[in-house]
Structure formats: C-alpha cells, structure tokens
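Friendly challenge for the regulars: who can give me the structure tokens for this chain first? No prize, just bragging rights.
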Amino acid sequence: AMLDVIKLSKKVGGEEGMLKTLKDIFDVYGLGSLTIIDLNNEKRTAFLKIDESSLAQAQLNHANKRNKTPVCTITSAVLAVMFSFLFGKSVDCVEGKCLAKGDTYCEFAIK
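First reply, four minutes later:
Bragging rights claimed.
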C-alpha cells in the first residue's frame, strides 16, 4: 500500500503530489484532517497536525479515560516512511500532542 502511495504521488507531481496524496489518504480513510504546520526541506524536518484522529478517538472511547502517553504509533510510522521517502533519508516521527491524552489535536514532529 505504501509503494502505491509513492507511485501515485509521483504521477500527481513530486513533493506537492505526495503531500496532497497523503492528505487525501487521511480524508478518504477517515484518519483525521492532516495539516502541515511547517516543512523544511533543507533541514529535513516537518511538523504536522491531525484534527479528529480516529485512532486517538477510538483509544479514548475504548479506555474510557485519557492516556498518559500518545497512542498514534501507526500514524507516526506511516508519516516516518512517507517523509523518509520525501527527504531521501531516514527520519523519525514523534507524536507530542495527542487527542487521547486530552489535547485538542494530535501533533507530530519529523526529524
């Protein structure tokens, strides 16, 4: 599936195509609304925000209480792979804010 995203993004048009494809995937699969807060190609860093994360909301509903730590590990992994491809080097993605912790949105730092 990830290779399909990369192939599709190349057809749509490089970096912009990949970012649009990534946003569309989050919309289509109901994963939340993805916003790129900051993207720095030179430093190979990015900060992203996801409103209404269905993964975090599902965890909140299941546990019936707030988590002490972020729960969107699958989202972090997907973003790390996508941005590693985009930046041409391996990067990490760390979730700081998380809806499941009681934050109003999920926020991810890619470095």
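The mean pLDDT is 86. Helices lie at 2-28, 54-63, 73-87. Your move, everyone else.
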